[in-house]
Request: fold
Amino acid sequence: MRIIRYKKNEATLQLAVVNNESFVFDLPYPDFMSFVHDAEKQGKTVLGFAQEFTTNEPVEKYENTILTTPLEAPEVWAAGVTYEKSRDARNYEATEGKLDATTFYDKVYEAERPEIFFKSTAARTVGPGQEVYLRSDSNWQIPEPELGLVMNKNGKILGYIAGNDMSCRDIEGENPLYLPQAKMWKNSCSIGPAILLADAVDDPYELTITCRILRHDEKVFEGMAYVNQLKRKLDELVSYLVLDNEIFDGTVLLTGTCIVPPNEFTLNDGDIIEIEISEIGTLRNPVKQLVKKESVAN
Ligand code: DO4
Ligand code: MG
Reply:
């Protein structure tokens, strides 16, 4: 059971529930968190409450909707180096390919404390079909396909979402202190296409993630991973995020990447990125290259 927002008409974004047969049922709430709060007020589970609406007449099939972000996440946080694949890729970019070197990425992969960083705000986060941007001062940029956790302000996991932690490998590789610049700029984060309700998932570690990159209608990259390759537990990542911290209803935590395109690959203007997570759906975004201005002051 999934929650989406779709364009009802030019002026209206409609919250809706999608059942397992891909039928869409409108929800009379302005946003996901209002729906969750009303379920709680009535002493119902979010899944049980959502199911009640699926006895209505469906309004549409999922594939016919024009989707937008299923929620305005006030903040998006991200965990890093949570999969072996990410550790190896970070080592490669930080050491100019000397794979036998031991770095702080090895240390953080093994350490008790995970790497958690601030990734995005609602204004920088886009949804299905919207452009993600390539920053103008990087020549080595990739998507990072990640499982996202949608939480309430207490860190309770309400659902799962696909996320793209767009990243500049050259900027981070030059110096880890450049991480915020390697991770955060206009349209550098995408989430969607739906929130898979946590109560509807038996085992989130069984979810699979696939990433495809299309260039001029040709597939130039495809990679696949299992969430059970994650070094840490999802609850463990959440517990570090909320420790002595205030988060807000609808915060998203991306849980790290396990899919990295080959080292010689960089995204181009016009590429299409598809991130598919089983049971959640496919998050599809076109890529746009930002053009360098004459001076950073302009
Ligand atoms: O240390 C950099 C962040 C790595 C990351 O974003 C990831 O592993 O997904
Ligand atoms: Mg990442």
